Amino acid sequence: MMRLTFTVGLAAIVLLLAVGHAESAKIVCVFPTASKSHVLGAQALLKEFARRGHEVTMVSAFPLKKPPKNYRDVYVPIEDAFSAIMSDFMQGGSRNMLKMLPKIVGVSQDVSNKTINAPEFLRLAREEQFDLAIVGYFMNGFVLGVGELFRCPTVLYFSATVSGLTNVVGNPIEVASVPHLLLGQRNPMTFVDRVINTVLHGVEKVIVQYIRHLTLPYYESNFPAAKGFRSYDETLRNVSLVLLNTYFTQTVPRAYLPNMVEVGGIQINAKPEPLADDLQQFLDGAGRDGAIFISFGSNLRSSNMRQDKLEAILGMISKLKQRVIWKWDQDEMPNKPANVFIGKWLPQDAILAHPNMRLFITHGGLGSITEAMYHGVPIVGIPMFGDQDANVAQVVREGWGLSVSFDDLTEPLLSGVVQEVLRDRKYREHIRKQALLYKDRPMGALETGVFWVEYVIRHRGAPHLHYQGADLNTFQLVLLDVFAVLGAVLYVVFKIISFVGRKVKHALFGKPSSNQQTKRKQKKA
Questions:
Q1: C-beta of residue 362 within 8 angstroms of C-beta of residue 382
Q2: Distances (CA, A) of 227 to 117, 125, 148, 230
Q3: Arithmetic mean of pLDDT, 71-83
Q4: CB < 8 Å & 24+ apart, contacts of 409-415
Q5: CA distance to 80, 102, 174, 204, per residue, from 98 (Å)
Q6: What is the pLDDT of residues 324-350, one digit of tens each?
Q7: Closest Cα partner for 69 from 87, 54, 86?
Q8: d(CA 451, CA 179)
Q9: What's the pLDDT tens digit per position in 269-319?
């Protein structure tokens, strides 16, 4: 009896392990972006897969300095693609995204095309086969064709919010209840908000079609139908899983299909990695006054900042009691204050996790906002472009930071805002509440992402997750075809009933005389 119990228990454990983990798989991730911060989440995911015994290959412009076992980098040099655009932003150039859109889309698609046509990637396509492809998505939908190229299931990783992605797997768009990215996270929306939201979604539909028009030639040249590849629209609809860099407490609640999974904060380490000795000593020595971190993200270079704005920030820093760490892209900083530590690439997550951190001055990128929220650090936002205005505005509404317009930035204005956030305890109290909400999950972001990707591997693409609505056009989704048929049927039924009614009436009461018919016509006239 004891032996039987042991055997059953052992079988249960083996079965549990089989269900809990996918067999060792070969995974390729193609992430054609010039933004290093966008790649961090995918790198965290791939490192965990490598730790679990999968063989992973990352195609990007940002190879790891110390890749783990089973992790291979394929480097494609595209990291400077957005330099000219970002430099213009830092000089105070136009931040009208509608005007900038053609240029941004053009650069994004060009670097994506360069990536999948690089000799290193083409060698992979010729010589290797993979069980799963993960694709980094940013206005470059044609890259999803790599799943077609390797004849394997495709997972899409998006480092921003859901807006613009619903057409991929057919996720419903709730225009009446879910605010657009550019409207900001307003819950509930007023009538005016819903009007604006409707207009924004309408404009987005036009933009999506515009991007599709630009994307099609890239897809058809790289994955032609003549070589057996499916059409662009079929490839989009057959994405197995979408990983979103969001979490509902940071946005607003909304409906998601089972194959759209939120993994917001996936790049954050629950146990921060050790800091370099000099940086650790600098932060440890900050004492009661603490430290401030300044970073404008991985795309914007602080050394390119307009001179008067740079001098305003340096003037503010020179009057602070706090120590300041600044992500600075040069070896030297002109007129660097004595209380400043600079570094070209700094471990932002680990810095924000340090107990002496008091404030984060940021451009308001989603990754930066998320890491500040997770670690409970208030912010002063200086938004520059894209979703950053909406991200910082949400922080201000939630009460854990303030905003300064880059155009209006002066030393007195910035100093006043920074001192306000440093002195008033309410900002730190509000961010602690937001951090608790953000961390309270059934599984961490990384564990969630790993589970669902391995789920797709285990079930060979998980076709049972496919939503039928993704295969319907707009007329079918809003049931116009159904209502048209029902209307026609009702009309025919009405005509039949009318015809039968007249016949019955004539049979019972006789056909009206010609005089009666004439009088009726005269009355109608």
A1: yes
A2: 17, 14, 11, 9
A3: 90
A4: 409/309, 409/312, 409/313, 409/382, 410/312, 411/311, 411/312, 411/313, 411/315, 411/316, 414/312, 414/313, 414/316, 414/380, 415/315, 415/316, 415/319
A5: 22, 8, 23, 11
A6: 999 999 999 998 999 999 999 899 999
A7: 54
A8: 29
A9: 888 889 999 999 999 999 899 999 999 988 888 999 999 999 999 999 999
